[in-house]
Design goal:
Largest sheet: 2 strands, antiparallel
Shape: globular
Strand order of the largest sheet: 1-2
Number of helices: 14
Number of domains: 1
Oligomer: single chain
CATH architecture: Orthogonal Bundle
Helix content: over 70%
Radius of gyration: 19 Å
Length: 306
């Protein structure tokens, strides 16, 4: 039972940064914008959060700073794509390269610096429940916040007028513009939200998952989060399930080594990325399903003057 609890706890910690980043990208794509710069926004959130927590000794301020860093990084993408009509795919790739390089520069003085990590919050009464209490009610604040954001995002997209408008922009920006909605403004705000969520995901890596700074510590998680959105067919509930599934694959290598399974560590480290490729290959075989679920205007530039 102790091994099972430990395994579930590590899956939760591995899934949380993926969940934050994928939720942000889902909202961004629902507005019709394809941002491939998740990796760059995540790693900027990671370094700014880690730097801030050592300057202020406050995890809360560090998380807010990470959100701002992710949003500011996304702002660069939004201006280039929405204002100057740059191609979304290469601009997103450039944003990833930019974020990785800038974070390495900022984090030079942070290499080798330790942090005790975000403290866990035990919910009175519920945390004392055997097994369940340790797993669900004795987590750090960001884990609780990730579940809250799943519920809030689902409610926003499906139950609010603003969410309906955002989805309308993603499905047909020309029709939304004809109805008087500001397509550029809506997409700009959605992109900033995606950046903020990616920043929080990065902050979780440097403040909770492995509380230290290492160059390139996102290690491709941004790309996994991007694949998660497609895997989930742009549905919030499936993003939650997918994040925990990929989180489980990510930490499989640790438990395989602990159980003495004779599998090369390099192969185990490859599993999350192999699973991502496999999922995308399987999904891409049914193009009609992708077209049915994906926003119709995804990746298409909007020119209000035309």
């Amino acid at each position: 039972m102790d091994i099972l609890i430990a395994a579930i706890l590590t899956i939760i910690t591995a899934a949380t940064p993926l969940l934050f980043a994928a939720l942000g990208e889902l909202v961004t794509e629902k507005s019709g914008v394809l941002n491939l710069g998740i990796e760059g926004m995540m790693i900027m959130g990671a370094i700014i959060g880690f730097f801030t927590v050592h300057q202020t000794d406050s995890a809360f301020i560090a998380i807010i700073a990470s959100m701002i860093a992710g949003a500011l990084t996304a702002t660069i993408f939004a201006i280039l794509v929405l204002k100057f009509h740059a191609s979304q795919v290469p601009t997103g790739l450039a944003l990833t390269i930019f974020g990785i390089g800038l974070s390495a520069l900022i984090g030079q003085s942070m290499i080798g610096v330790a942090y005790e990590g975000i403290p866990k919050i035990a919910i009175p009464g519920l945390s004392s429940i055997p097994v369940i209490g340790d797993i669900f009610f004795n987590q750090d604040g960001l884990v609780y916040f990730s579940i809250f954001m799943v519920v809030a995002t689902m409610w926003f997209l499906n139950k609010t007028r603003a969410g309906l408008i955002l989805r309308a922009v993603g499905d047909s920006h020309d029709a939304a513009h004809a109805m008087g909605y500001s397509v550029i403004k809506i997409r700009f705000l959605a992109t900033l939200f995606g950046g903020a969520m990616a920043g929080v995901g990065g902050a979780y890596l440097s403040l909770a998952y492995s509380p230290l700074w290492v160059e390139g510590m996102t290690a491709g998680r941004g790309w996994i989060a991007l694949a998660l959105v497609v895997f989930a067919s742009w549905r919030v509930g499936r993003v939650l399930l997918g994040a925990y599934l990929f989180g489980g694959i990510t930490i499989l290598q640790l438990h395989a080594q602990a159980l003495g399974i004779a599998v090369p560590s390099q192969i185990m480290s490859m599993l999350p990325y192999l699973a991502t490729i496999l999922v995308l290959v399987i999904i891409s075989r049914d193009k009609s399903k992708i077209k049915l679920n994906s926003p119709a205007s995804l990746g298409k530039a909007f020119h209000p003057s035309r």
